[in-house]
Structures are given as C-alpha cells and as structure tokens.
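User: Structure tokens for both sequences below?

Assistant:
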Amino acid sequence: MSTGHRTVASLLVAVIALVGCGSTDGDVVGAAVEDYTGKTEADPNASTGAKPATSLSAETTTAATQDPTTEPADGGAEAGAPEAGAPWTCTGSYGTAKASSGDYYVTAFGCWKDAAGVSHGDAADNCIPTCLAQAKAAGLCLPGDTGKNCEERVTWYTADAARFGCLARLKVTNPANGKSVIAVALDFGPSCTSVEAKVKKEVLDASGRVDRFLFGSDQGVLDRSLVHVTEVAASTPLGPTTP
C-alpha cells in the first residue's frame, strides 16, 4: 500500500475508534473540561468514565437543601425558641402578674417616717392601704390606727399586694449598689394605665423610706430605677438587710 493510502486508512481507524468510545450522554471521554474558575484542564475522571463533580461551595449546598419555609435562627438561637421571661401585661386597674425575671422599676408613694421620726406625706395618695384590716389583724398596726397611722408605723412597705398578696414580705434589692431592704406588701397598685403603661414594665410602688434607703431619693417611673424582688418568709424582720 502506498504511503498516501496508509495515511487515509490510519485516519479512518482513528475516527472509528473515537466514535466507538463515546459516552451514552454524548460526552467524549478524555475531552477537556472547564472548571468553575474558567480554566481548561484535563478531565480527572477520564480513566473511569465518572461524571465530573459539581463545583458547589458548602454555603451553596446548604442553601439549596434548606427548607425555604424555615426562617434562619437569630443569633444562633434555636428557631422558634421562646423569649426569656414573659412579656409585660397589665390590663386592669393595677398589676396582678409578677415579673418572671423578678426585676421591677421602683417608685415612691404613701405616708412614712424617716429615721429621725419625721413624717412624710404624699399629695397624690390618700394613705389608706388596701390591706389595712389585715395589717391590724396581724399586729402590724394598732386597732385604732388610721391608714396614715398604719403606714407611718410600718414605714417599710410596698404596694403590689395584688401581685404578691396582702402582707407578703419582700426582699427588695438595688442591683447597682447591692443594698437590700425587707418590706411588706400593704396596698394595691400601681396603676396599669398611668404608671406601668408608660414604661411597659412591672413597677414596684414602695414607701419613700424604701426608695431613699436604696437610691438616696424618691424615684419616679420615668427614672426606670431597677430593683430585684424576691419573696421571703413572713417572719423576716422589716428594714434594711445591708448597712
């Protein structure tokens, strides 16, 4: 066979071999493939006939498999996890639900006496505590005491009896300075609408004696002065627990 015939025959054999080795999906084994960077390189799977791996990052794979109806967790928290503590609610005349955290803003009210025995009044309060009868029955106040007399005699007291119950003993602590006092719940209040609604938080109304010991002055609701409240035994003596 002449040299020209041999060349033509060799070409025909090469073409037949290539067609015979084609993959079922039309790919040609050994053909160059282009990766996600745009560079062309030899197919690493040519010897096995395997399909090239898809170039997806871990983030892309996660996004593709994530349920589209599921919102991502906020700040690493478990999706749908409840918030810490119950939200503030006060829908009646005064608060009845305790703060789940034990934290309250404190305010001052009522009639009381300071360490020198000087009487202090409250123009916005009638000084007739709701728990007056219970206080007399328990011996905290005398049978003939008026509301004003009773509050001045006790002097370490709070409202919020609708939350804690009449005559509940409360340890009230100023977390900023560590000072604590034991007070007794002697009255209802404060008002949902005119007090707690202003700050959207539970408020502990306390005598001026309590406020001044813990903070040095009477506190108003907009001062947002924080105290922590825990219930203690009924036999716990009233007054400061810290110097």
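Moving on to the next sequence.
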Amino acid sequence: MKNKLPLIGLFIATLIYGFINLLYRFVGDINYLSVAFFILFFSTIIMLPILKLSKKLREVKSLKKLKLILILGFSQALTWFLIYFAVVNTSIINAVLGFMTTPVFVVILSPFILKEHINKKIMIALILALLGILLIFDPRKLIQFIAPLGIISGILAGFSFGTNNILGRKLKDHYSPTSLTFLGSFIGTIFMFPLFLLSGSNIPNTISMSVIFLIALAGIVGAILIFYGLKYVIAQSASIILLLEPLVSIIAALIVFFEIPQPLTILGGVLLLSADVIIIRTQK
C-alpha cells in the first residue's frame, strides 16, 4: 500500500478512543445506558452540519443498501447496550476483555462476507495481539470476577462491533466515511431511545453532559477515520490495529494520572506493537 494515510487514520482513531476511556472518569455517577444514548444523540446532532458542509446529504438520503445500513445502526446500539450490561454484571476487566474478541469474529466472518483471504501473517498478528491483551488485563485477576452473563455479554459486544467493522468495509463503495458515521449514529439513536426511556435514566447534569458531548465529538472523528481506513485496509487488519486502544489508555493514564503500568502490562504492550508491525508490513 503506497498510500499510508488509511493506516495512519486507524492509528489516530486508536489514540482517540484510548483517550476517550480516560474521559469516562469525568462523566460522574450516571447510568451507563444514559451515557450511551446521549453519545449517539450528540453524535447525530454534530454530524448534521458536517454532512451539509461536505455535501453528503444527498448520499445519505439515497439510502442505498438500506438493510445493511439498518444493521449497521442496530449493531452500534447493540454494542453500547451489551457493554453496559457487561459492565453491570461483571468486572470492567472482563467486560473489556470480552469486547476485545472483535478481531476474532472479524477474521472468522470476513472470508464469508467480504471474501477476504486469511493468511499466516494475519493469524500470527492476531495471536500476538490477543496474548498482549491478556497480559495487559492480567489473567490472574479474571478468576476473581466470574459472572457468566456479563462475560457472555462482553463477547457478544465484540461480535457486534466486529459486525460494524465488516459492514463499514462492505459499504465502502456506496457511502463516504462521513455518511456512514452519521447513519450509524442516527439509526443507533433511534434504536437506543426506547431503551433509554424504559430504563428510567435521568438526564445528566451540565458538567457530565459537557464531558459526554466531548466524548461524542472525539468519537465522531474516530469513527470517520475508522470508516476511511476500512475503505483501503481489510477488516481483519483494521480490527487488529484497533486492539492498541487499551495500551493507549494505559500510556495516557501514566501521563495524566501518573499510573505506573506493571511489568506484565508492558510485555503485553510489546506484543500488541509487534502485532501491528506485522499488519503494517502486510499492507503492500
């Protein structure tokens, strides 16, 4: 791949989502479902003027591949809901670890849906990345939080997000990254709204709402970069690159909160970086 911009975009998206994880600390004690709904809602509102300026409104209104677009929006809403359920019913460690199974599902499904070939280098990168994730979250702590429903929910969230990545790749010739970001947020908001009402969630206060708005704004940039990357990088490789997110969060926590990573965490980070080096070399 002569043009390295798609790869750079995916790495920047990983940096953005890694720092977003830190912003959650400033949201306050608010129902996670409420946070998820308002992130999608704000994302939709922010994207409207961007769509108009980029002259993509006609593209959105065309509603090409409507079934796939509906699945895209549903997968975003489902991902938020499943993560919420996982966090409530198990530890954050288990919830995030389950979510990080995304590339496994992408590697399994992409040959059938996207006709992507699985090669040895991608499999090696996937194994290294998953080992790195295990070390970062310290497998010795997992046995302290056995909660089958929460763990299953986290894994299903990984499947849902993997579906989102595959659809982003499949729709690349029909919609721009900007249009996909808007449609995913808009349809996701529609799916999330009934859950928000049924949960009886309260509207966050001004400070929390400001943080949520900032998360939505950053998330939009990350989503556009991911969809842009998926236009040129196969879904398998993109999903492995995005596994750098927890490592970015750890580095950011070191800078912002002076949280010192453990030796196993550092080793896990080295394995993740090794996996990404392999992925970069496969992109010719």
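User: Anything stand out in the second?

Assistant: The chain has 13 helices and no strands.
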